[in-house]
Amino acid sequence: MIKERTIAIVGRTNVGKSTLYNRLCGKKEAIVHDMPGVTRDRREGQGHLGDLSFKVIDTAGLEETTSLAKAMWQQTERAIEEADIILMVVDSRSEINPLDIKLAQNLRQLKKPVILLANKCEGNAQYLAATESYRLGLGEPIAISGEHGQGMLDLFQALIPYFPQEEIEEEKVKEAKTSLKIAIVGRPNVGKSTLVNKLLGEERVLTGPEAGVTRDAISVDFEWKGKSITLTDTAGLRRRSRVDFSLEKISAADTRRALNFAEIVIVVVDAHNPLENQDLQIARQVVDEGRALVVAVNKWDTVDNPRKKMNEIKIKLHDSLQQVKGVPLVTISARNGQGIDLLMKEVFHINDVWNKRVQTHKLNEWLKQMTEAHPPPIAKNGRRIPMRYMTQAGIRPPTFIIFSSNPDELPEAYLRYLSNGLRKDFGLDGIPIRIHMRKRENPYALKGKKNK
């Protein structure tokens, strides 16, 4: 069996520690409120994440020095002493402040593993939050949402090395770690459930000619050629203006939650009416959430003129999703299994691209070549906007930071130029790419402030 470990959740007030505690415990034990300082005593409970079981301690938030704050901090210190692993939580919606920095300095002196979590990272906020949190010197932060359960898979993978296990248990965790989460989405009655049943090799979910047979998002674990997969079939997504039945609204919300938990999203479209506005809206939502996207054109065995139809689809996909050029496009027949092998091959390939990391020295050599070939525009001060340094801040999707002395003046057109270059030169076609500009501080100006 897995040896139990103790995990302490620490951070300043109102960053979401109790929300994360409740998420790990699987029930609402700790009181959660927007008012800072609700938690004062440390609370202990039994936590679970994947195959991992552990004792979890919720602690009082670090705040400005008062007599009560000192007593609360003593409770937190005891939790830290008792813990084998420490989760430091910061709020992604606010800037890193001196209390965060002070706590991080204390934790860095410990001979214990510390995992940095940027909480409240719903939607695209995670990318900005992650880069800001690097200042704490605790390594790459994990973007999570304790309230919505996002990022729990990443936290699970970060915890695995600290849980010694017997050989059989290690194999189980290894499978869980490499399990690929795939969601199948699309409009009603395009064949999503039929595709799921074909992949599973059994009639696992209901199908029928009527639109809207599937109401719940159904997740099933299975293996495809030795690879572990969690596959989620979802209810069809209609335009919001057409969703007027309360149960259908709940189903649509459940589908969107499944999309948030997925790593790869297969958007299924009908070959006879492919890439309508609703299909494209779903695809854009997938891209905006930073997920890897594969488009499956179903019912291809019933198309009369395949070459003409494919040209139409490619042109529409290229024109409508220019921010992710090269999205995999696979023709299938979910009913008879045509194209299923190729579909899964593209799924695993796009997952590899989505997880790709580029070495820093290669990025900076590339940046130099790109700026020499097409220099950045001239800023208001009459000088060209300098591009000082570039690094990759994260994966899933690949996220890059470029440092400059005046990043706010760089136009979107130049960022698109860099984004297209990244795709072409590092093989990043078909996935979202994030590029964030950051201001590089003037070291001489900082030195002057210190001297004052």
Keywords:
15 strands; flat
Low-confidence stretches: 29-41, 171-176, 206-216, 238-252, 442-452
Strand order of the largest sheet: 2-3-1-4-5-6
Mean pLDDT: 79
Can you count the helices?
14
What do you see in this structure?
With 452 residues, this protein is an alpha/beta fold. Helix content is 38%, strand content 20%. It has 14 helices and 15 strands. The protein has helices at 17-25, 67-82, 98-108, 125-133, 152-159, 167-178, 192-200, 246-261, 277-288, 306-320, 340-354, 360-373, 412-426, 443-451, and strands at 5-10, 43-49, 52-58, 85-91, 114-119, 142-143, 180-186, 218-224, 227-233, 264-270, 292-298, 329-331, 389-394, 399-404, 434-439. The strands form 3 sheets. The chain has a 6-stranded mixed beta sheet with strand order 2-3-1-4-5-6, sandwiched between helices. A hairpin with a 4-residue loop joins strand 13 and strand 14. The N and C termini lie far apart (59 Å). Residues 29-41, 171-176, 206-216, 238-252 and 442-452 have low confidence and may be disordered.
Quick structural gist:
By secondary structure, this protein is an alpha/beta fold. It has helices spanning 17-25, 67-82, 98-108, 125-133, 152-159, 167-178, 192-200, 246-261, 277-288, 306-320, 340-354, 360-373, 412-426, 443-451, and strands at residues 5-10, 43-49, 52-58, 85-91, 114-119, 142-143, 180-186, 218-224, 227-233, 264-270, 292-298, 329-331, 389-394, 399-404, 434-439.
Topology:
Elements: E1 5-10, H1 17-25, E2 43-49, E3 52-58, H2 67-82, E4 85-91, H3 98-108, E5 114-119, H4 125-133, E6 142-143, H5 152-159, H6 167-178, E7 180-186, H7 192-200, E8 218-224, E9 227-233, H8 246-261, E10 264-270, H9 277-288, E11 292-298, H10 306-320, E12 329-331, H11 340-354, H12 360-373, E13 389-394, E14 399-404, H13 412-426, E15 434-439, H14 443-451
Parallel strand pairs: 1-3, 1-4, 4-5, 5-6, 7-9, 7-10, 10-11, 11-12, 14-15
Antiparallel strand pairs: 2-3, 8-9, 13-14
